[in-house]
Amino acid sequence: MAKTAAQRRAARKRKEQERAGPRPAQAAQGADQPELLWTQHVSAAQNTERRVARLLAQGAEAPDEEGLTRVCADLAALDSEVDSHGHLTRLLMTLLDSLWEHGWQPADVAHVVRRQGRPRMTRLALAAIARQAQLADVASLAPEEWRAQLLGLELPDDPPAALISAWGRGERLAAADAWAEALRMLRLLAGRGELPRLCPPPSQWRHVAGLRTAPGVRSGAHHADPRVLGRIRGLLAKAEGTDYPEEADALTAKAQELMTRYAVDEAVLDAERGGSLTDEVSSRRVHLENPYPEAKLRLLDAVGSANGVRVIYLESLGIATVVGLPVDLDLIDVLFTSLLVQATRALGAAGRAGGPGTRAPSFRRSFLISYAARIRERLEEARNEATQAAESSRGAALVPIMRERREAVDEVFDELFPTTYAITTRAWNARGWHAGRLAADAADLGSGRDAVPQ
Q1: Residue 120: what pLDDT?
Q2: What pTM does this model have?
């Protein structure tokens, strides 16, 4: 078909344009392309972050493991580096801040996570606590007891801001597994109730000097001399570690003598100094590890009751709170720790010597409950003897001194815990009960304020 003159002119124009290169409009569009791509990238990143945030909310509220697994698979597909945007890390920091405000302390969080039996989750909790301590400027602002607690936890040095990603790599976890474990810890800690406040939270550290002291948070309390405690701990550590009973008896006897003499002297000095004993009464928490925490509680209560200290237990958390004068709290800590080591060692020896039945949980639980019951009897006997000996050497004036100390502790305890109930713990294995009683008869008592005579 022949072309018209107009068609021929249009064809020539197209050829000229092709030889000349792209049109100006096309060139301008090419120049704008990088900016357009960056805008699209930012939009896509924001959209991904929103999706991650939504999935985190779903994971935190997932009703079961199956739902959590699905959410974490989606999170891994979106963010294979695990929390590269820091959403979950910020949630953990906010959660820890909230727990501190509600009376929790770092050792409480580590204990609750550790009770789940997941070492890698515990390592994540410690990394989160360390990161939060950096943000709260613990080194320059925190009270001494808070800093000492962090030192006792052996936190990782200089945790990175992207701590969940670094933790996941260190544990060699697949992305979905790292997301799941981190969310499990978040769910474990979220929604926890309040604990009695034992010291000011981080939000009050900058102006703590002007605060009114809360119940159980006492100022100016007189603690046991660290040098004396160091000598006592050294003696008891040697008693626990030796394989020779005679050497253990001699070392523990020396510790008993030192503890009793020091504690009675401190009680008399407190009376001479005057002031309000109630203001000196303080509280501490004792974390009772699995297995058989209720049996270990019995031992703690036996030691505490013989030394003027009250004990209360939060069963769901495995946490006991002890209330007493600081010197007595220092001493029962030493005694309880030593007796618990001795009980564990005696239980192991009974298991090795007694055959298969001694490995059963019922035997081991009954053993520890019986052990604690017999220790209570021995401490009560020793307390009565110590009271008579102290009255003979110091006169009747010692009686009101001890009574005032008990009354001060009771007053603070009732203020902190107005509603309590007794816990009943039963032992069902007769063989374990008798074995535990025999072991308690052989135990070395590390003493307390008035548990053995002078």
Answers
A1: 96
A2: 0.79
Tell me the DSSP string of 398-449.
HHHHHHHHHHHHHHHHHHH-SS--PPP-----HHHHHHHHHHHHHPPP---S
Q: Is the pLDDT of residue 290 over 50?
A: yes
Residue 369 and residue 433: Cα distance in Å, rounded?
Answer: 7
User: Has residue 55 got a pLDDT over 80?
Assistant: yes
Please say whether the dihedral angle defined by the alpha carbons of residues 258, 261, 266 and 272, taken in this order, is positive or negative.
negative
- Higher-scoring residue by pLDDT: 215, 384: 384
Interior CA angle at 329 toward 323 and 335, to 5°?
125
Long-range (24+ apart) CB contacts under 8 A made by 74-79 are 75/175, 75/176, 75/179, 76/174, 76/175, 76/176, 76/179, 78/48, 78/51, 78/52, 79/48, 79/52, 79/175
Euclidean distance between CA atoms 84 and 182, whole angstroms: 13
Q: Which residue matches tokens 């119940």?
A: 215
Tokens of 10: 């249009």
| CA dihedral (327, 329, 330, 331) positive or negative | positive
